[in-house]
Amino acid sequence: MAKAFSVAMAVAAGLLAGLVLGGCPGPDARGPALRTRFESEDPVDRVAAIRQAAAANDKTALPALVACLSDSESDVRFFAISALRTMTGQDLGYHHYDGEQARREAANRWREYLQAHPPARE
Q1: Domain locations along the chain
Q2: Helix-strand-coil percent breakdown of the chain, rounded to 5?
Q3: d(CA 34, CA 25)
Q4: What percent of the chain has pLDDT over 70?
């Protein structure tokens, strides 16, 4: 419980900082630097990467966003599905709060979606 609260507070602080600093992605909003943040051990970094990809509408990040649907942290899953919904207009029945089996099935639907609708290379 304390860890979830800590992650939520860090995410909230990041959101506030984004608003104060203008909320605009910088010149490195896409590409390899962003991709490594998706794999960070720190969930706050993963959420920041998700938000940055969504703000830049970086369709090449869709596979990384789909991978985040299986994250152990609920906050990461929430931001991932929110970004996917914003960028694609789809949710494919995914709910970040569902049990592991339901999330796994919905994540598989997302992988199938990406195979049928591969992101364009920018």
Answers
A1: 2-116
A2: 65, 0, 35
A3: 11
A4: 72
